[in-house]
Amino acid sequence: MSNTQPLGRQDSLITLQAHILEQQARFPEASGTLSWVLSALSISAKIIANSVRRARLDDVLGSVGNENVQGEQQQKLDVIANEILLRTLGKREGVAVVASEENEEPVLLRSVGAGKYCVLFDPLDGSSNLDVCGGVGTIFSILRYDNPAHSDNGWLQTGSKQVAAGYVLYGSSTVLVMTIGMGVDMFVLDPAIGAFIRVAEKLQIPSANKSYSLNEGNRLTFPTGYNKYLDWAQANGYSSRYVGAMVADVHRILLKGGVFMYPPTKKAPNGKLRLMYEANPMAMLIEQAGGKAMATPQQRILDVTPTAIHQRVPVILGSPAEVDHVLTQLNAHP
Ligand code: AHM
Ligand code: MG
Predict the structure, then answer these.
(1) Same domain for 93 and 112?
(2) 195 found inside a domain
(3) How many CB atoms are located within 10 Å of the residue 152 CB?
(4) What is the distance in A from the centroid of ligand 1 to the CA of 283?
């Protein structure tokens, strides 16, 4: 059973901006810089949502013919979404560094200093789904960048240091899910007024649900423990659900429960997903919602020490009981 508390009609209408100010007010010493960064992300989300909805009409579907630094085909909308985020965040004084899946190196905008942040993002995750009108998303992670001793590569911090994380799902509606370390809140874009409206506070992931989400097409090259888990799950009446866009798959797991995985494969020995702007923000959200997010049976994703901005990491996240079923098999078949 989910502990989510959806808001009823009698509850007051809270926009994302009001919510951010409400949370800021709980910290009298706060300068408001983080609020400005979050507000830039919300504006980006609205502009990207509009581009995604108009993609076919504006003829911006398909690839640009380039590969990004990960060796993947860049979709036209990947590039557009990246530009939108760089432009909106670039103007905010508090943003010192932006790092994106689509840029080889982090972009240094301002020097390290008090009240400065790094914003890391995947501008349009799962973008190959665009051509078929499937769900895609933006994922973001915010770290402090205020320690002069760490000005070189200061963005290479463990996920446990994130001050905020979230995603935007451009699906049948545009949904923004966010945490600043005080639980997970969910907002839906009301296109009529152009504002994100809070629809749920302090989301809690269901503790169990017989559902797993991974690309089973890679099964022949998974480590043995993952295959033993799949044998066990299928013998125990589990369902398989996989969109192939992390934001859409994790959103379903957050609301309905289950486990999402991207295991190591022969092609991607550390898994496919990127630590800094895919796995870490999702792990923070899932843990803040009472779930578990592991890279291996021994290591939380949030404890993985980063050594490169685009490094990859195996991902096992979701309902605590469901993650534990996977870990049991991984431990039994190391
Ligand atoms: P992208 O960032 O290039 O879009 O790739 C990441 C996506 C995730 O959204 C998704 O979970 C995964 O790749 C799907 O990969 P696969 O097609 O191997 O199952
Ligand atoms: Mg991605």
Answers:
(1) yes
(2) yes
(3) 8
(4) 16
* Residue 1 pLDDT: 43
User: Which residue among 125, 214, 226 has the greatest number of ligand 1 atoms within 8 angstroms of its CB, and so is best to mutate?
Assistant: 125
Write out residues in the chain with pLDDT < 70, as ranges.
Answer: 1-11, 65-66, 68-71, 73
Non-local (6+) Cβ contacts of 112 within 8 A are: 96, 145, 146, 147, 148, 150, 151, 154
User: Closest ligand 1 atom to the C-alpha of 125?
Assistant: 4
Choose among 89, 198, 189, 70: nearest CA to 141: 89
Query: Which atom of ligand 1 lies nearest, measured to the CA of 268?
Result: 18
Average pLDDT, the chain: 92
Quick check: pTM over 0.85?
A: yes
Domain holding 14: CATH number? 3.30.540.10
Q: Is residue 193 located within the same domain as residue 273?
A: no
Say how many domains are in the chain. Answer: 2
- Domain residue limits at 249: 211-332
Same domain, 196 and 216: no
284 alpha carbon – ligand 1 mean position (Å): 19
Instruction: Give the model's pLDDT for residue 30.
Output: 79
